[in-house]
Amino acid sequence: MKRLQLLLHDRRRRQRGSILGGLLIIVAFLTILIGALLTELTDSFVVSQDLVAKVKTEATVTSAAELAINQLQGGPVPAVCAQDARGPWALTAPLNGHFATVSQTCSAIVPEVATSLAAGSSNVDGIHDTVGGQNRYLVSAANGWLWAYPFGSTAPSWWVSLGGGATAPPLTAPDPNGSVDILAPAGNKVVVFNERSGSNPVPSCNLATTGTVSASAAAGANFHGYAFIGDSGRLYVYDARAGGSCAWRASVSLTGSVAGAPLVFPGTVTSQSQTSTVNDEVFLLVTSGSGTSLQHWTYTESTTECNGNGEGGCGGGQRTVTTYNLTRTDSHTLNGYNAVGYGLSASTPPLNLAVATASGRLDVAQIGSGPSYLMSPGPSVTLPNGSTAGRAPYWCRCPVLGVMQDVIGVGGTNGFLYLFNNQLNLAYVYDGQPDGRPAINTTPMPDATGDWYFGANDGFVYDIEIPVSGTQMFKAAKFGPGGPIVAGSPIVGSCPTNLIGPCLYFGSSSGGSWFYRIGSTRISDLHACISDAAGSTTCVGNPRLWTRVQVGPAAIWGNLGVYVQGWSYYSP
Question: Are the CB atoms for 100 and 61 separated by under 8 Å?
Fold first, then answer.
């Protein structure tokens, strides 16, 4: 009985202990739960604070980017993206307790006008014609038509048939009767048109050659209205004056093909007794698969007035006798073979020629002042990277970082563009690797601000710029119809005064001829960040904001003028 009482008493004690233990467990659980809840609340509060801070800083840098866009819109436009000096801009008062700054980089140029002109195949270069007060783009095509466009216009002023596919760029020259002669090569002939003021050109005659005329003709100097023509193996002289019979005067055999238009300068004019002699000095770039030479020829006309007694070489009677002669005066051998053309430092002697070859050489030769026009050699280099030239180089007196300098531009068939100085030291290079290095088979040409343009085999024209530092050039634009551009080199010039330029014409081998106007539309990359003080351009905090924005004339771009192409917050 006593044991039973003890057992019951112990059971009650154990029950009290179990209840107490359970309460302790519950208390402990509640403590953990409350602690976790308090921690979560604390963390949430901290996260909320961070989010609020982040939103504030994002709002601040966004406002800075909006400030930059406002500064870009309607502001001055950099002609050269790579030398853009706009910005940086900074908030002058705190926003959400922070200052901010934003920098800007011009990343691309967007043409504002792109218009197809004439369909067909452009297989030769056009020209910017300014003879006789004209300002127009003349281009002939493989389908045998010659077109004229007032420079900056997309509507032709006239077009005429050549009677055969074009094989070289046309030439314009003043005619002695006060009109303008247009000489357009088309196969084994040069078609002569005469153009009077206010009227369309009318055919005058054809100047026949034995071989294909693959270079422009040249106009006479002392012999006004004459034409000098080179083909695949001969040099010809014609009297091409309007109203005449386009009479053949002389021709000679050459040691190769003529690469580039003949250069003609005035020679001596003498008179002795009853005979007067007039000379024109002619320079030819003659090339073949074995070599290249710059040749100097003299064209002479001697006229004798007879006195009626059979003296002076006359056969009797009162009459005039004229003889015509072409004589080689000198020849200067250049490096390389299969020359593709030349670029000139000036239009009159003394001048330099930069000669490029398909064998990868670039040479400079000089023609001295008249009347002797002596030739002398200049520097010579091998094009880098195994490059070969597909078309003639271009020599200009161009702005380079604000300083006018002699620059020689050469396009490589391996997709490189090279800029040399007049001593043929390599100054700048464009590596076309990002676009697959399409071959360049056109002559590069600069605009008035120093941007360079070339057409490539991928069907696009490239706008390439000289950087502020370094030698690697910057691609500012790429545009075109997509048909290979293996002739039809870009012709760049100032737009009419009512348009923002430059204006540019070029031809595609499958897409016809085109007109583009560069205008004032630019794409900029903006980088906004938190700064350390009012007006400061030093970044001190994150996040930062990158924005790519296109800014241009509102009248062209949907009455807005501003498009944000993309944006992103980031932490470097």
Answer: yes
